[in-house]
Amino acid sequence: MDDSELFAAAHRLPTKRRPLLGLTILVVEDSRFACEALRLLCLRSGARIRRADCLKSARRHLKEYRPSVVIADVGLPDGSGTELIAEINQGSPRVSVILGISGDESLEEETLKAGADGFLAKPITSLAAFQHAILSRLPADRQPASLQDLSDETIEPDFLAFQDDMAHAADVLNEDHEGNTLDYLTQFIGGVARSAGDKPLANAAASLAQARMAGRPIGPDTAMLAGMVQERLERKIAI
């Protein structure tokens, strides 16, 4: 190794301000708002981020690269993130840290049973909590001397990413009201709403999901949810 390589390696070593330097994190997340929050968390921590928005994209990525950490959302457009977690858990060599994320905290047990090392509930905004979730699960020789010394700050993702998610939700609502699509959409909108602190929208998504589970007519709940999504898109025009 020449002097330039030694210099480059030194700059990849973790520091107190950038404790995740040297790590590559694959984020599997379909919400642009949630993904933007994770991008900022990785940036502040010194980690390199790679992104996938569905199972197919994540699997394609994993055939070519081996990340240090995988953070997978449970609800994805082409299946459950627990499927991916189980696959990665059985891989050899295994990814060092696998974390599941969701706006629905009741899915934690399912995620851990699939093989995840930990679970993060959305919204994920605390820098220290994010770093601790990863560092505490790395091999002992890669952990910092003290996890108590992590500095904290609150991450606030760009609200335009929330608007992108609403545009996606509106497109799906306009095109498809089939059962599986609605199940995915209520999970998607509910997760985005909780991440953005939009309780009325989260409640509307939950109401539609409950109507589906109970076998009640879904027309009124679907129309209400579509109207609320459209209202949030119109706020962008007002801006």
TrEMBL record:
Domain Response regulatory: start-end pairs: 24-137
SMART domains named among the record's database cross-references: REC (SM00448)
BP term (GO), one: phosphorelay signal transduction system
Listed name of the protein: Response regulator
Gene3D superfamilies: 3.40.50.2300
Pfam families referenced in this protein's UniProt entry, alphabetically: Response_reg
This protein's record includes keyword Phosphoprotein: yes
Highest taxon above the source species: Bacteria
Keywords, in A-Z order: Phosphoprotein
Modified residues (4-aspartylphosphate): 73
SUPFAM superfamilies in the record: CheY-like
